[in-house]
Write a structure and sequence with these properties.
CATH class of the largest domain: Alpha Beta
Helix content: 25-40%
Structural class: alpha+beta
Shape: elongated
CATH architecture of the largest domain: 2-Layer Sandwich
CATH superfamily of the largest domain: START domain
CATH topology of the largest domain: Alpha-D-Glucose-1,6-Bisphosphate, Chain A, domain 4
Largest sheet: 9 strands, mixed
Order of helices and strands: EEHEEEHHHHHEEHHEEEEEEHEH
Number of strands: 14
Distance between the termini: 81 Å
């Protein structure tokens, strides 16, 4: 026996256009959008209204398309992620998600963007904790949410500009309150790596883009400063780096990195400045890997401080960095802090070795391997774990 399906006609506005179709009583709005209208930007995840991947806007409010019946949307106005092309707020959120690495696989991203747009419009003041609570109905299994929170905050702080000063929607910008937040840094016993507390940077990248470290070197301050002022001797001590040429205070540098299946060779330019009176310096530069399309940039401010004995000194530095492209997934949170800490430790060993008449280890001047860095991180973790106070 054949059962005849009962179909209902539904007419609604989708992304500014009037559309009609025939749907079953059980057809969800998500299925109607995807199957009938080919708007596949609306993703289906749990299909129970829990994960938030299917979130769309209906009459200006976010709804779960997977548990909303299509025939219940008669005469309603629906906007999907495809309908945000001409919306300045949505465009800003999309840019911010890329800038702050707020996505990886991208499955949750359409629903996440719709929810984030609503969060920005509904709140007159917004803290990181409020952003996290408001996003409790949108699950992301990749990013850890830090990039998403940073992206929302960055757009929220300039919403007046994006919405042409519409005071009916938004309130004056509220600057983020970092409170007593401190940057946890990598600790290392060999080579006297010491932790230095640091507040997150003032830039848009937050604490994921700034690192402070202090290295103790068992050499007199004048000898260490003379060494650090010589870029032709310093650059080869950086694992994976190679100095190609020097022209005045301009550098041509190459750095090779191996991260699992990804191999990158960054070629770029740099600049440096040294102050002999204060024993402070700054290096900065940017480069691009032609194969992966990844780009990287950063700066390093450092100072050399002698101790009372005159036999050793401290090198304190603040590093800022940014990575875009396929390698950007490795520039997140604790992972990069541990790796940068391990890299700094390898750099300290190389400096100590060269100053003592030795050679740069295999980590410097050749490809920088994630395996080598990982081994250094694990080794240092165990050293810290079993170290006697």
């Amino acid at each position: 026996m054949t059962t005849k399906l009962s179909l209902s006609e539904v007419t609604l506005d989708v992304n500014g256009e009037t559309v009609s179709g025939h749907v079953e009583a059980r057809t969800s709005l998500a299925d109607f959008l995807r199957d009938d209208l080919d708007l596949t930007g609306t993703h289906l995840g749990c299909e129970h209204g829990v994960c938030g991947a299917c979130t769309v806007e209906m009459d200006g409010q976010p709804v779960r398309a997977c548990i909303t019946l299509a025939r219940a949307c008669e005469g309603r106005s629906v906007r999907t992620i495809e309908g945000g092309d001409d919306d300045p707020l949505m465009a800003a959120l999309q840019d911010a998600f890329m800038e702050f690495h707020g996505l990886q696989c991208g499955f949750c991203t359409p629903g996440m963007l719709v929810a984030c747009r609503d969060i920005i419009l509904r709140h007159r003041a917004l803290t990181d904790e409020q952003i996290r609570i408001a996003l409790g109905g949108n699950i992301c299994r990749c990013t850890g949410y830090v990039g998403i929170v940073n992206a929302v905050r960055s757009v929220f702080e300039r919403r007046h500009e994006l919405l042409a000063g519409d005071q009916t929607l938004v309130a004056p910008p509220v600057q983020p309150d970092w409170g007593d937040a401190k940057l946890a840094t990598f600790k290392r016993t060999a080579g006297q790596m010491e932790a230095v507390e640091a507040a997150p940077s003032d830039g848009a990248g937050g604490d994921d883009q700034t690192l402070r470290e202090a290295i103790t070197v068992n050499k007199p301050v004048d000898e260490v400063w003379a060494f650090l002022s010589d870029v032709e001797r310093v650059v080869p001590c950086v694992p994976g780096a190679r100095l190609l040429s020097v022209n005045g205070n301009e550098l041509d540098v190459e750095m090779e990195i191996s991260l699992g299946a990804i191999r990158a060779r960054f070629r770029g330019t740099g600049r440096y400045h040294f102050d002999d009176d204060t024993r402070k310096g700054r290096m900065e530069g940017e480069g691009r890997d032609a194969r992966s399309g990844s780009s990287a940039g950063g700066g390093l401010d450092f100072a050399v401080i002698g101790d009372e004995s005159g036999k050793r000194c401290r090198i304190e530095f603040v590093a800022s960095y940014s990575v875009t492209g396929p390698l950007s997934q490795f520039s997140r949170g604790g992972l990069v802090k541990s790796f940068v800490g391990a890299l700094a430790g390898m750099f300290a060993d190389n400096v100590q070795s060269v100053l003592s008449g030795g050679q740069v280890s295999r980590g410097g001047g050749s490809g920088l391997s994630v395996v080598r860095l990982t081994l250094n991180v694990i080794k240092s973790w165990f050293q810290s774990l079993f170290r006697r106070e």
